[in-house]
Write a structure and sequence with these properties.
alpha+beta, 6 helices, 8 strands, 189 residues, binds protoporphyrin IX containing FE, eight-stranded antiparallel β-sheet
Amino acid sequence: MDEIVGRRVRITGGPRGEWVVERVLAVRGPALPAVPRVERREGSSEPVADAAWTLHGVRSNERYVERRERDRLVAVQEELGRAASSCAALIPIKKNSEWWQLAQDERRAILEGRSRHIAIGLDYLPAVARRLYHCRDLGEPFDFLTWFEFAEGDRGRFDDLVGRLRETEEWRYVEREVEVRLLRATGAT
Ligand code: HEM
């Protein structure tokens, strides 16, 4: 598999997938159509015939993390796919043109300097495992696809985490956000 294909992700909503949709919340802007299941497939962008919707993204380099922060993240974060992670959330996000017109240092000052996104996030590691995909340059409806996995007992902590982030200055630049809450399917798809 070549490198760019390996970094791709395709997330579909439809009749099949490892994750059962518990609820879809339109946090800001329009929701995604209701579907019974969601599938996250890395290394693929092939169309899925019976999907109601398909989102594409790519794993990319970090933009904002500084060395000390990365060392702390790497020391505590855990991988997706843990056996205890029976819950997940897909949160696609689009930021407004005002955000994209800012310079890199201005965005970093908002994201971490004033909003403490990374510091807040670190409070929830390793309970919450996460993956960020970029899609702004793919002509997609969202700029980012964020994916989180956690245990049943940490659902309340996850709600607390998203609640804190949504109060921040960074989130004033979010023009569309959908929260798709998921439970790992126990039977076949
Ligand atoms: C689990 C705790 C979390 C941690 C440790 C965390 C950490 C981070 C870090 C380090 C970055 C910057 C990556 C870079 O340098 O490019 C980032 C970006 C981002 N995170 Fe989080 N995060 C967490 C939770 C969340 C949640 C719950 C959401 C959504 C509700 C979210 C949405 C985003 C988005 C959209 C970006 C990209 C921002 C941009 O590039 O403008 N994060 N996160």
